[in-house]
TrEMBL record:
Pfam families, per the entry: Response_reg
Ranges for domain Response regulatory: 18-137
SUPFAM superfamilies: CheY-like
Species for this entry: Caulobacter henricii
Protein name, as recorded: Response regulatory domain-containing protein
PROSITE patterns referenced in this protein's UniProt entry, alphabetically: RESPONSE_REGULATORY (PS50110)
Modification type 4-aspartylphosphate: residues: 68
C-alpha cells in the first residue's frame, strides 16, 4: 500500500502509491500526471473513461483516485460508491478526490454521500492539489472541522505544516 499513518503523523509514500486518474480529457490527464510526478508519485495509471475505470479498479489496489465524473455524473458517483462498498475496516485508506469543472452544490453533497474525500474545482494549482491530497490522506482525527469550504467535510484551517512536511520529505 502507498501510505500509512503512525504516531498521529502523516506518512504518505508517494513513490509507492498507486494513483488512478480518470478523465475523458487527455490534456487534463497529462497536466495532472505532471503535477503528481513532480510530487514524487511514480505509479500513475490513466483511464480515459468511467466505464474503463470500473474494470481497471477490479485489478488495481489504488491508494489515490482522481476522477472527473462529467459528463456521466451518476456513473462517476457509482464508481466511488462501489469502491467504498468493497472496502473493509482493516483495509488501508483509499483517497478519492473528484476533480471537475462543474461543482454545483448537489454534486458536492452527492459526492460526500458516496464517499469522496474532496471535490476540487478545475482549474487548480499544484499547491491546491497537493494540499487536498495531504488533507484527505490524514487521519480523520487530525482533520479540523473549521471553515465552511463546500468542497469537503471540514478542511483544516492551517495546511502549511503538512504541505511543508511533504515538501521536505520530497527533498530528502
Amino acid at each position: 500500500m502507498g501510505f500509512a499513518t503512525t504516531n498521529a503523523e502523516l506518512t504518505f509514500n508517494f513513490g509507492e502509491a498507486n494513483v488512478l486518474i480518470v478523465d475523458e480529457n487527455a490534456g487534463f490527464m497529462d497536466v495532472t500526471s505532471l503535477m503528481l510526478s513532480s510530487f514524487g508519485f511514480r505509479k500513475l495509471h490513466r483511464c480515459p473513461s468511467l466505464g474503463e475505470s470500473h474494470a481497471f479498479c477490479q485489478d488495481l489496489e489504488a491508494d489515490l483516485i482522481l476522477v472527473d465524473p462529467f459528463p456521466r455524473t451518476e456513473e462517476g458517483l457509482a464508481l466511488i460508491r462501489d469502491l467504498r462498498g468493497r472496502q473493509q475496516p482493516t483495509d488501508p485508506p483509499l483517497v478519492v478526490i473528484i476533480v471537475t469543472g462543474h461543482t454545483p452544490r448537489d454534486l458536492i453533497q452527492k459526492a460526500r454521500a458516496v464517499g469522496a474525500d474532496y471535490v476540487v474545482a478545475k482549474p487548480f494549482s499544484p499547491a491546491t492539489l497537493l494540499d487536498r491530497i495531504l488533507w484527505s490522506a490524514s487521519p480523520a482525527t487530525e482533520r479540523s472541522l473549521g471553515g465552511e469550504n463546500p468542497g469537503q467535510a471540514g478542511h483544516a484551517a492551517e495546511t502549511v505544516d503538512p504541505l511543508q512536511q511533504a515538501a521536505q520529505a520530497l527533498l530528502q
